[in-house]
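Quick log. Single chain, no ligands specified.
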Amino acid sequence: MKLAFGPKALEFGLWEWIGQDLADELGPDHAIVFNQKIPPCDAVVFIKFKPPLHILKQLQRSIKLIFCPVDIYGSVEEIDADWESLR
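-> predicted structure:
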């Protein structure tokens, strides 16, 4: 299984200790890091930022989606408002 981690965001420390560290641990046979364009993969792990809903819907037709919303939501209300893209 090939996992893609991104989008790469070096300006956020959490990228290093979640995205990059996980990708490094899995190694090049199982993980790849991307900036903007999602490479061919079985699943994509979005760290902190995810694409708009219409793109998520297109992606979920062919790959598994995982979202790590670290430090992105400030309240339960913000999570509730984003419910559709979190399904």
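The longest strand covers residues 43-47.
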